[in-house]
């Protein structure tokens, strides 16, 4: 058997490692959010409601929203948050191609949302309790609002802003799931579908105008910490393994999620070398060198120097 065929056989007999690369930039010695120069893209329906939509209203929203992507700068984002949180406008954190809202048409996602309905008396959380836990796990909340069915702030939605747009559905779904599992009191249906839409509310509970951000590495690191705290040293890796199987994220030799951060991309003399064992991934196609997300803030300067890129590697099986 030729070396080429042996290599192909080896690849087919083992998991294919695919690295998703996401670029981020950071500014030093400035308040959170001051380096916000990019736009954020969401699916947003401009029709306001004073009660939760129903029947034909939902069908009309669903027909419109996939074709209603909106790019928002800082001022635009604040305005839309007001309309979503206080005027009942519907949104989806993700945007879509082909005018249809479903997973197959996923384009990108930068916002992540959780619902707290507090239907289970044993799992009730007040917003301040959610915020305290979010701080503990390095998940600063961008905004939160009362849903239409809320009385005395007992039903609300919280929204987080990631530092980069995620253009791969699997990566976005894994981030959403990790955030959701850190809050078992939340409605699980809200964090298991990246194409989900969210109805607007009647009052903004919270808005941080510094535009604080979460990031991929921090989300998964704190997810691991949360599982260890919840299940103990002897059992938490069982839950990490389950998460790995559900999301497709590979595990390291130590049984932890294989996610790393670096300030440079690996170099190779031949970009096709080791093809299949080490790849980047973009837009559903395998490529030796590709970037799926790029937060283009290369003009940011700290103390006279341009701050280096940050690359997030998520190793999928």
Question: Describe it for me?
Answer:
The protein is of the alpha+beta class and 317 residues long. It has two domains: 15-26 and 217-316, no CATH class; 40-215, DNA primase, PRIM domain (Alpha-Beta Complex), CATH 3.90.920. 27% of the residues lie in helices and 25% in strands. The chain has seven helices and 16 strands. The strands form four sheets. Strands 1, 10, 11, 12, 13 and 16 form a six-stranded mixed beta sheet that branches. Strands 5-6-8-7-9 form a five-stranded antiparallel beta sheet, with helices on both faces. A hairpin with an 8-residue loop joins strand 7 (143-147) and strand 8 (156-166). It is globular. The two termini are 26 Å apart. Residues 9-15, 26-33 and 268-302 have low confidence and may be disordered.
Oligomer: single chain
SSE ordering:
HEEHEHEEEHEEHEHHEEEEEEE
CATH topology of the largest domain: DNA primase, PRIM domain
What profile does the largest beta sheet have? 6 strands, mixed
User: What's the alpha carbon Rg, rounded to whole Å?
Assistant: 21 Å
> Average pLDDT across residues?
81
* Total strand segments: 16
Low-confidence stretches: 9-15, 26-33, 268-302
Percent range for helical residues? 25-40%
Q: What CATH first level of the largest domain would be assigned?
A: Alpha Beta
Count of discrete alpha- or pi-helical segments spanning 4 or more residues: 7
Span of the ends, CA to CA: 26 Å
- What count of domains describes the coordinates? 2
């Amino acid at each position: 058997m030729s070396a080429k065929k042996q290599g192909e056989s080896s690849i087919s007999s083992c998991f294919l490692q695919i690295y998703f690369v996401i670029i981020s930039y950071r500014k030093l010695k400035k308040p959170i959010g001051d380096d916000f120069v990019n736009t954020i893209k969401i699916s947003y329906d401009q029709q306001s409601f004073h009660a939760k939509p129903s029947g034909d209203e939902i069908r009309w929203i669903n027909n419109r929203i996939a074709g209603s992507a909106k790019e928002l700068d800082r001022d635009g984002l604040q305005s839309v948050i007001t309309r979503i949180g206080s005027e009942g406008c519907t949104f989806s954190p993700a945007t879509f191609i082909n005018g249809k809202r479903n997973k197959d048409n996923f384009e990108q996602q930068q916002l992540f949302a959780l619902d707290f309905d507090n239907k289970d008396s044993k799992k009730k959380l007040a917003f301040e309790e959610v915020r305290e836990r979010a701080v503990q796990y390095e998940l600063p909340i961008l905004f939160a609002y009362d849903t239409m069915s809320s009385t005395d702030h007992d039903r609300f939605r919280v929204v987080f802003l990631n530092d980069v747009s995620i253009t791969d559905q699997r990566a976005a779904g894994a981030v959403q799931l990790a955030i959701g599992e850190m809050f078992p009191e939340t409605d699980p249906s809200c964090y298991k579908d990246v194409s989900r839409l969210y109805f607007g509310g009647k009052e903004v509970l919270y808005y941080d105008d510094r535009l604080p951000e979460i990031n991929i590495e921090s989300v998964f690191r704190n997810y691991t910490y949360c599982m260890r705290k919840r299940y103990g040293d002897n059992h938490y890796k069982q839950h990490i393994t389950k998460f790995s199987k559900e999301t497709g994220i590979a595990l390291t030799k130590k049984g932890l999620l294989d996610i790393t951060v670096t300030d440079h991309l690996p170099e190779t003399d031949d970009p096709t070398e080791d093809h299949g064992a080490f790849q980047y991934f973009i837009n559903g196609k395998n490529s030796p060198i590709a970037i799926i997300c790029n937060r283009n803030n290369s003009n940011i300067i700290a103390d006279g120097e341009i701050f280096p890129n940050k690359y997030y590697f998520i190793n999928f099986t």
